[in-house]
Specification:
Layout (H helix, E strand, L loop, with lengths): L1 H7 L12 H11 L8 H4 L2 H24 L7 H21 L9 H20 L11 H6 L17 H18 L4 H7 L5 H13 L2 H30 L16 H5 L8 H9 L2 H24 L17 H48 L3 H12 L4 H22 L5 H25 L4 H16 L4 H31 L4 H29 L12 H15 L8 H21 L2 H4 L5 H10 L2 H19 L1 H21 L1 H9 L15
Helix pairs in contact: 4-5, 4-6, 4-21, 4-27, 5-6, 5-10, 5-11, 6-20, 6-21, 8-17, 8-20, 8-21, 10-20, 11-27, 13-26, 13-27, 14-25, 14-26, 15-18, 15-19, 15-22, 15-23, 15-25, 17-18, 18-20, 19-20, 19-22, 20-21, 20-22, 26-27
């Protein structure tokens, strides 16, 4: 419960600092001044959909790059809300200057645009392009070892735009309808906070006040300035990368010996910006994981080559060093995920029981002391109801479609696997959404991993890997999208936006994402060497997820020598670290590393962790020099860094397709 309370005190800007109570009340009061609320059909506009599409495309490119390089994607909802406000406010002002009348830009439209854009790029985040879907391809199958027990010959399916798009359309819309009948219970009756949804609503409400408009202007100006700087820097880097090993992407700032262990600075403004958004403990945990793995363990295990594993094995063999990298990272991820999964389930059950016993008392107290703003919100939220028959019939329809389509795409997945998955999905989605409403922790990936282990073991050796990976996608998609929709409903409730427009905008954004995400993926997949463990596009979670499935089928026999004992140690460390975070006093628990963050560099390497820590250093320095300005501008500057560098991926990819090479080579060499 303490975690939930701490999150509610954080500002939407950085998620790290407390907001002034007076400012919060002022923003809330000003934003809810009685005015004409546009009908739900007017809240979705053509200009809003165009802005959502543009923002969705840009952020899809960004998160796809992050997915296929490190697999670490920060929350970008705040920057999406800022960008939506900037685009539409600039558009309306431009029309006003040239004498063209346009409808006012309201916070309801702002909310709808932000929801649609986030739904669009969330398909790229959670669609499995860097994890369970990519884990099905032939390259990952070969990396897992063609002779590995459980990695059955032919148990792969190479990416294709057609089947990936069809798969996304099949599984993504089920989650939109699973919890619609329960929206009133979760938002109004239980009054769940959904901290991210609340933070986004406060941000949007703040934009649409006189004081907030001035603040937004400063943020938009900062975003534009650093966006341009980031884009120009990425362009300059490209011009200097004309050859193997050329450019600034491997600057040996710590020396050549450290460079060989991937400790170098790559001047990636994407990860510097991500480091500015992520909390300090996340970035420090990443760096600690890099030091433990690439600084200590991998060099030591490499020296045992010939004793622990055959010296004739290539480094990419799962029976060699690569196996230790993969399975030790899995141990950390599973230990962290299992602990938090059980903790959230227990916390959710206890909280629901407590609410049930106090519901009547709370209801009477609320009726005795009604709050005008809450009544106004509740009235709009209830009046603009979504027909229950639509949710039920839609869920049944998409379930039937999945029962037919999924086994056709993947014969290893039996139709009754899909039936059971979708019978359990609403209950799992409710548990996840309820937990997210209390703690802001979306545990969809952990639900997906649990289903992966169960389905892979159930399907057996011949079909287990494919069935586990696909089943993971089914459950994860429903559970994740359900929680995201509840976050959006909370945002809509606080901005007095119709649930109908929220659901429709979410559906439109999801449909956009189901088309844009596969196209973006294939742009990268065809140009870059995605999945190469020695390249920049490692896509580490594809191999991790596939080996989870193999482990479920074969058990511990799939592990290299002495790897099981090390896995026990890392699994235990993950559990103990989480227990310490939950039991120690706040001044100590905040410094306990996050095991799941430590696991990321085990496969990816150390370089990006340095970028992330540079981002933290910028935030720390800025707050030391001017805390108020830092809290205001950090999200805008970080978003500018990420968007500028990310947007450059489009022209650079097109140049690569046209076989246009950079004209200059800048290279760092050692002088004897």
């Amino acid at each position: 419960m303490e975690e939930g309370r701490r999150k509610k005190k954080r500002t939407p800007a950085t998620g790290q600092f407390e907001a002034e109570p007076g400012e919060m009340q002022e923003i809330e009061a000003a934003a809810l001044v009685s005015r004409m609320i546009p009908p739900w059909s007017k809240q979705i506009t053509l200009r809003g959909l165009a802005a959502s599409l543009a923002i969705g495309v840009m952020y899809t490119v960004i998160v796809m790059k992050l997915n296929l390089t490190t697999g670490l994607v920060p929350t970008l909802n705040v920057s999406a809300a800022l960008l939506a406000f900037a685009v539409l406010r600039s558009w309306t002002k431009l029309l006003h200057k040239i004498g063209v009348l346009s409808t006012p830009f309201t916070r309801q439209e702002n909310t709808v645009v932000q929801t649609c854009a986030v739904a669009c790029y969330n398909v790229a985040v959670g669609g499995g392009f860097g994890s369970y879907l990519l884990g099905l391809n032939k390259k990952t199958y070969e990396q897992a070892g063609v002779d590995t027990e459980g990695n059955v010959p032919g148990s792969y399916k190479d990416p294709g735009i057609g089947w990936m798009t069809a798969f996304l359309f099949t599984v993504s819309f089920v989650g939109l309808l699973a919890l619609v009948p329960l929206r009133k219970i979760m938002i109004i009756d239980y009054k769940l906070t959904f901290p991210s949804g609340t933070a986004t609503a406060i941000l949007i409400n703040g934009f649409h006040t006189p004081q907030g408009d001035n603040v937004a202007k400063k943020q938009v100006h900062g975003f534009a300035k650093y966006f341009a700087a980031s884009f120009l820097w990425s362009t300059f880097q490209w011009f200097c990368s004309g050859g193997d090993g050329c450019g600034f992407s491997q600057f040996p700032v710590f020396g050549l010996k450290a460079w060989k262990q991937t400790f170098f600075f790559d001047f990636s403004l994407t990860y510097i910006g991500a480091g500015m958004i992520c909390s300090h403990i996340v970035n420090l945990s990443l760096l600690l994981g890099a030091v433990v793995s690439w600084g200590i363990m991998w060099p030591l295990i490499s020296e045992l080559r010939g004793e622990w594993y055959s010296s004739s094995l290539p480094e990419s063999s799962m029976s060699g060093l690569q196996g230790y990298k993969v399975f030790l990272s899995i141990a950390l991820i599973v230990g962290d995920g299992l602990y938090n999964f059980l903790k959230i389930l227990a916390f959710t059950a206890r909280n629901m029981h407590a609410r049930a016993t106090r519901r009547m008392i709370k209801s009477e107290a609320d009726q005795d002391n009604p709050i005008l703003n809450d009544l106004q919100r509740n009235e709009v939220y209830i009046e603009e109801s979504i027909p229950v028959w639509l949710a039920y019939s839609g869920y049944v329809l998409f379930t039937v479609v999945s029962i037919v389509v999924i086994p056709f795409m993947f014969p290893e997945v039996k139709w009754y696997y899909v039936v059971i998955a979708y019978m359990l999905a609403p209950a799992l989605g409710f548990c996840n959404a309820y937990g997210a409403g209390l703690t802001d922790m979306n545990m969809a990936y952990n639900y997906g991993k649990v289903s992966l282990f169960i389905l892979a073991a159930w399907a057996g050796k011949d079909s287990g890997v494919v069935a586990g990976l696909v089943g993971c996608g089914l459950i994860k998609s429903v559970v994740s999208i359900s929680a995201d929709l509840m976050h959006d409903f909370k945002t809509g409730h606080l901005t007095v936006t119709s649930p109908r427009s929220m659901l429709l905008s979410q559906a439109i954004g999801t449909a956009m994402g189901c088309i844009i995400a596969p196209l973006t993926f294939f742009l990268f997949y065809n140009i870059f060497d995605v999945g190469n463990p020695n390249g920049n596009w490692k896509a580490p979670y594809a191999l991790i997820y596939r080996n989870m499935a193999i482990l479920s089928v074969e058990g511990f026999s799939a592990l290299p020598h002495h790897c099981l004992q090390l896995c026990y140690g890392f699994f235990g460390f993950a559990v103990v670290a989480n227990m310490m975070r939950d039991t120690l006093p706040a001044k100590y628990s905040g410094w306990v590393p996050l095991p799941v963050a430590m696991a990321v560099p085990f496969l990816v390497g150390a370089s990006f962790t340095i970028d992330m820590c540079v981002g933290s250093l910028i935030v720390f320095t800025w707050h030391k020099l001017n805390r108020k300005k830092g809290a205001l501008m950090v999200p805008a500057v970080a978003s500018g860094f990420i968007c500028g560098d990310g947007l450059w991926m489009l022209p650079s990819s097109l140049l690569a397709l046209a076989k246009v090479d950079p004209p200059i080579c800048v290279k760092f060499v050692a002088i004897e």
